[in-house]
Amino acid sequence: MTAPLVHLGDGLTVSPLGFGGMALTPVYGEVDPHEALKTLHHAVDAGVSFIDTADIYGGGSNEQLIAQLLRDRRGEVQLATKFSLVGSPADGYTDVRGDAAYVRQAVDASLRRLGTDVIDLYYMHRRDLRVPIVETVEAMAGLVQQGKVKHLGLSEVTAQELAEAHSVHPIAAVQSEWSIWSRDVERNVVPAAASLGVGFVPYSPLGRGFLTGTVDASSLGANDFRRRIPRFAADAFDANQGVVAAVRSVAAELSATPAQVALAWLLEQGKRRGLAVVPIPGTRKTHRIDENLGALSLDLTPAQMEALDQAADAVVGSRSADPNWVSQGRE
Q: In this predicted model, what pLDDT tens digit does every residue of 276-297 receive, in sequence order?
């Protein structure tokens, strides 16, 4: 990959595409640990150095998997992980904690599992509504002072929460779901991040696979996380095929793949809004990493952007079973 590095916020510089580690856990089906590690190594070989994980992915096993990558390649990776959720994506979450004691406990546990002495970007995964966000961020800032963390991030916060947090300590990045079919963050969070100089890291930029046109709702496994998402329900899934059709149409015009078009759309949104945007698609297959990187050289015309925008307006179903779980429900 020859594309230039991207400056998020607070001096954090990362590869123009990242890698979402949750795909390498059983949340979408069973995972072969050997193949998962092979995929991680291929990502770094290809120039994807921004690796994203969380303490709850696989009950900590995802951090332990990434530790095997870091053992020999720590200097090649900008490492992001998260805290605050208790439970797992596959089995459900039992609590959200943002108290100072838990912040300190969680970072030490992640450092042990990752086998490293510092985390490049440490996110609050979800907001604990019982704790003022400034208190959580003050505790996170203490980790920076101790040298355990270099930069701070927030996931699924509102514009107001971002501003309050940023007043306590510079926030390098906001991570939220953002894609052609998940655009609620554009109303408030995206403009706030742009005005504050905070980078944006879209997770699920391919719509949890939906935008690639390769997902069959009827074939999702019993433990597949997507079964709990309203827009993957049978009726909504069928209604949303118009979005896939629009992505495929643009892909055909450009001799590209739907995944490349979906990622290129996000990158163009960042340019239009004066915002550093680094999507973190996840995959279990090495060839998908190479495919995704092709988005960096793809240019969408204004007409193609408009066609994708119009398709997004017709999306059926929420992106979360509980909108309050994400920023959408609190704005």
A: 999 999 998 999 999 999 999 9
Segment 93-121, tens digit of pLDDT: 788 999 999 999 999 999 999 999 999 99
Burial class, 161, CB count within 10 angstroms (exposed 0-12 / middle 13-18 / buried 19+):
buried
Distance between CA atoms of 29 and 25, rounded to whole angstroms?
A: 8
Q: Can you name the residues that pair with 50 across neighbouring β-strands?
A: 18, 78
> Quick one: tokens of 87?
């439970």
Q: How far is the C-alpha of 226 from the C-alpha of 134, rounded, in Å?
A: 32
| Residues belonging to the chain | 331
Characterize the bridge pairing of strands 85-88 and 92-96.
antiparallel
Active site residue 57: yes
On average, the pLDDT of the chain sits at 91
Question: pLDDT exceeding 90 applies to what percent of the chain?
Answer: 72
Q: Please, what sign has the CA dihedral across residues 233, 92, 138, 16? A: negative
> What does residue 31 show for φ and ψ, rounded to 5 degrees?
-125, 140
Model pLDDT, residue 91:
66
Candidate list 28, 57, 102, 203, residue with the active-site label:
57
Q: How far is CA 122 from the centre of its chain?
A: 13
Q: Closest Cα partner for 120 from 173, 189, 161?
A: 173
Phi, psi of 141, deg, nearest 5:
-60, -30
